[in-house]
Amino acid sequence: MTDFSPVSVWSESSLHPTASPDFSESTRPAPYQEARAGRRRGQRRPAAGLAADVHELLESMARKRVPRLDAIRSRVSDLRGATDLLLVDEAMQRLHAAATALDFMAGRTDEGTENFILQGEAAVEQCASFVPVAVGFAQRHAVQGPVARLVWIDLVIESNSLQKRVRQSARWLAEMDQDLVSRRKWISSEVTVRAIEELARRGAIMHAKLQNVHRLCGHARNVHLLCEQQASERTQLCATLHDKVRPSCIELEEALRPLVHAATYRVLVPTELMAAIDARHELQVVLTQAAAQVERLRVGDQELGAQLAHMEDKAHAAA
Question: pLDDT digit string (tens) for 20-38?
Answer without folding.
Answer: 444 443 333 444 444 444 4
